[in-house]
Amino acid sequence: MRKSNIMDAHKRLLAILHIVYGTIHILIFAFISLLANTLLPFILAEIGDNSEETMLLVNGIMLLIRSVMFVLFVIVPLPSIIGGIAQLNNKQWGLTTMMVSGCLSLFNIPIGTALGIYTIWVYLENKKTKPE
């Protein structure tokens, strides 16, 4: 098997892994959001002090949590899914998008780290075989 065929197989596998990784992240974030929205009324009911200041504090904390979750939802999984789909459709920018997403996933130990290292390896090997 030629080296370019092997690299094509690695790029296809990498694209599929990024799509699965991004989809799992979306499902996890959706579950956490659903859990937070379900538990919030019970948390508010348990707070004995129903003063206006307490409600503003709780609502501010929930807004902060939702904002962080939204940013994580946009930054982590979407580029991974978009890059994976682009790579499967043989778009040149797909591998670069997965590279950025792979570097961001390095901080997600252990699966994200493994995916990030594999992404970097495929990206560098692809640059060796195809100089621009």
Question: Short summary of the structure?
Answer:
With 132 residues, the chain is mainly alpha-helical. Helices cover 85% and strands 0% of the residues.
Architecture overview:
With 132 residues, the chain is mainly α. 85% of the residues lie in helices and 0% in strands. It is built from 5 helices and no strands. Helix 1 packs antiparallel against helix 3 (77-88) and helix 1 (3-46) crosses helix 4 (93-105).
Q: Which geometry do the CA atoms define?
A: rod-shaped
Query: Biggest β-sheet: count, sense, barrel?
Result: none
Q: Compute the number of helices.
A: 5
Terminal-residue CA separation: 23 Å
- Quaternary status: single chain
Topology, number of strands: 0
Average pLDDT rating: 86
Classify the beta-strand content into a percent band: under 5%
Low-confidence stretches: none
Give me the secondary-structure category: mainly alpha
Q: Report the radius of gyration as a whole number of Å.
A: 20 Å
Order of helices and strands: HHHHH
Helix content: over 70%
List the topology elements.
Layout: H1 3-46, H2 52-75, H3 77-88, H4 93-105, H5 111-129
